[in-house]
Amino acid sequence: MDNIDKLFGNVLDVANSYGANKDFIEKAYLKARDLHKNQTRKDGTPYIIHPIEVALILAKLGFDENVIAGGLLHDTIEDCGYQKEQMISDFNQTVFDLVDCVSAIDDAKYILNKDNIYEDMGFIKSSAEEQTFAKLINLGKKNPCGFAIKFADRLHNLLTISTFEYPKQLEKVRETEKWVIPIAKALQSEYFYREIKNECFKIVNKYSGERYFEQYDTYHKSNTQKIIDLDYTLKDLFKGSIVTDVKIMDVKPYKVFEDLQRLYKSIDISKVSQGQIIKVTNYNIYLLFADSTHQKTISHVLNMLQKTNLKVIDAKIGGFTDKMYFQVEDDISNKYNIYVMSESEYNITKVGTLDGQHLDKIDEDNINQMDEDLIRVKTRSNEIKYMAKNSTVLDFAFKIHKDIGFAFKYAIVNDGKTKFPPYTKLNNNDKVEIITDKDSLGNMACNAQLKWLAYVNTELAKKVLIKYFEEKLVR
User: Fold this and answer.
1) Residue 355: is its pLDDT beyond 70?
2) 314 phi, psi to nearest 5 deg
3) Taking 70 as the threshold, does the pLDDT of residue 302 lie above it?
4) Residue 425 DSSP label
5) pLDDT of residue 117
6) What is the pLDDT of residues 163-179, one digit of tens each?
7) How far apart are alpha carbons 63 and 66 in whole angstroms?
8) N or C: more exposed end of the chain, with fewer CB within 10 A?
9) Following DSSP, what letter does each residue of 336-382 receive, concatenated?
10) What is the C-alpha separation between 385 and 397, in angstroms, rounded?
11) Exposure of 239 by Cβ count < 10 A (0-12 exposed, 13-18 middle, 19+ buried)?
12) Are 51 and 30 in contact (CB under 8 A)?
């Protein structure tokens, strides 16, 4: 227990450095320790170690005492029978709401949703999983930090999954790739996205990728002193300037391999060499500023880089930051990405937009397509809707309301005069007006035809149409 208390002490120290309430966090720890006191994990370790590690991940990212407490208590409703009223009384409504977000629906409490074609009483485990993540999305949009607790929980579970049989590990990866990674991507949580995706990559390639991971580790170890020297050089170079901090980080193994796949189209992970690894970027450099502008800092950085052995070879737009970054190369061909951003932008990049931005990208009606690229589509009144990249105007009609979908007649795109058919594909930033039919009583007509199933690509539209034709066939 002394080692466990010491581990928790790390949580307190880190949380305190960010100004979180230590007493509140310690109270949550003592409650979690008491509730989990007779429980162990599959590897035989005391269960309480898991929520402590989850809390530590959250503390290091600067979350407040409510979120850290939620991390400590995240399994107590699901596994210990901790009741809602008691948790609210012991802590507060916020902590309960966060824990409720990440509490799974028990198979025994599963209720069939007859309107959801992805649920089936013959597959209760899968259907309960579907409902659990739909619940997370629904509640998480009201309490976004609940997503962060789920991410931290899943990350630590993946880091400690080796005691499970390999098929079980792959099953957890499948679930993670279907649900968790797409949500992290939608929220632009770069830290969780990359960490979780990398652990999944390592598990999937546990055997076939042994040589690759050895080559990756050997390459990075051989550069250890080079990176230490570069870190010292850059910090000395920017000392006293508008650049307030320098951070150098390894590019994750999964990302290096993805870049290798783009470079070598049919590369075999079991045959990757160090000579190939050096061809792609292996390090990220973050140059942070506080009291300056982005453009001014970039100009300063480019001027100062001329005093180093780093040569700018390309400029690109970051997938998470949506800002320009520079690819540079040193005198022995190591490649780096240099990101210039404010300290607050850097923090947002780590944890994502958990303040409400981008939450509308996460849609429980299209949860099976969240891993796809999204486009912005405007309604007639200029309201923004996020749609999967291959969506049609008929998909968009059902997104607005199922009655509008069923009554679809044609679409007007970008205020033009052309009448577009239901199978018309949408482009990013299109403005779409759906024209509908009405019956003799002035109500929405139903124009649905079986061939419409070939015109829609979103799960929401498919689900509504299948349900409609299924009921029609029964009649």
Assistant:
1) no
2) -165, 165
3) yes
4) B
5) 67
6) 999 999 998 998 998 88
7) 8
8) C
9) EEEEEEEHHHHHHHHH--TTSTTGGG--GGGGGGTTS-EEEEE-TT-
10) 11
11) exposed
12) no
